[in-house]
Amino acid sequence: MDDKLDFRRILPIFVIVLVDLLGLTIIIPLLSLYAATFRADALTIGALTAAYPIMQFLAAPILGRLSDRFGRRPVLIFSQVGTFVGLLMLGFANSLAVLFASRIVDGLSGANISTAQAVIADSTSEKTRTQGLGLIGAAFGLGFTVGPLISFIALAVSGNDYRVPAFVAAAFSLISIALSVFWLKETHPAGAPGEAREALKLTSLRAALTHPGVGALLILIAAQQIAFGGFEQILPLFALSRLGLGASAVSLLFIFLGVLIVIIQGGLIRTLSRRLGDRKLVLLGMVTLAVGLALIAFTPAQPAPGYDRARVVAELTASKDPSAAEKLLVPLPTEGATGLAGLGWILIAFVPATLGGSILQPTINSLLTRRVDKSETGGILGISASLVSLANALGPLLAGAIFRYISPTATLLFEGGLMAVLIPLALSALRGSGDATSGSPQKA
User: Fold this and answer.
1) DSSP readout, 200-253?
2) The predicted structure's pLDDT at residue 191
3) Contact, 404 vs 209, CB < 8 A?
4) Which CATH number is 1-183 given?
5) What is the value of pTM for the model shown?
6) Which of 101, 208, 269, 276 is 20–30 Å from 355 (CA)?
7) CA–CA separation, 282 vs 361, rounded Å?
């Protein structure tokens, strides 16, 4: 294998991941509001959002070992079939229990991305692996921009029928299965030797957290995911309660977020890293994320132009009876003077929040790899990924609980405050050379 990335070899898995991600990102803007139609409160919606990453955290290491033993292709196809079934269940859901079941099924089979990364690792050399894995990040950026756009179109065409985007997402999932079956070649035949994969061990986690210069960075990467990931999951409910935005308008917000993420991760982060260095970039990320989330918390409670409370109630309850609003456990703004103040405020506040959320994780991971021996790089990144998965479950639960029992404003203030209070820890952790140190943590 030469030192140049073979794009023809990587192209099939890139396209498969992109199509697969479109299925996921189509449902993200509406999942919370879909649950609200079944009288779910914010805490229950947080639990629904957490179901997928919890199941994925439990199942992904097992599926990873199976892909080492039986090959990447069959495990990837199994995972994609689980996603397809979960999305069909979402579309046919007639109760909150079915919504939960759909996310659990999808999560238990959710090794699509990790198996795709293994395919790329099989298909690249050490010198081209980073570039190859970077294509997964590019697929994420495209998916989180195009997926919400498809969701917006599906809702517009269907008259805000939440089932339709789920079925569209299932169609994309079916296409990804067909691509895997007919286009993807096996890169790791059954029985071939492979790297041992195992679940996160408490001994490995304890060793990493107590490792000088590493433990604090792991805490920071988990905290930023709780803050920014929790914000992304609670955004549909916040926009509904503060601005009266339904699923179509929320899809447009996610498109804006996706464009910002592509701009930041597609080029701005490299420029900032060269000019500031990773240590200053981490501090910049924490400050901007804290400020951005705090600004979003104080978004003026002014419904956007065109707000019709009765129409939003009908969208969420499938009833034209105004009293149906009482069935909703998420507050709606009252009808009154509409305007652009609230919408303009939140769009401006998205910029610092997204800047911080987009630069922290890759920058902290970059620092982590320089603070351990080369032999421990894979292990420490595995621990980092496991903590991010756990944070993806904890973030929506915390956000949902605060939203439900305190207020929407308090939710965003908590997430921004979490970043602010950890800035002294970051200042302490970022001192030093950043080179690999002795006493490396055990492999994950």
Assistant:
1) PPHHHHHHHHTSTTTHHHHHHHHHHIIIIIHHHHHHHHHHHHHH---HHHHHHH
2) 58
3) no
4) 1.20.1250.20
5) 0.82
6) 208
7) 9
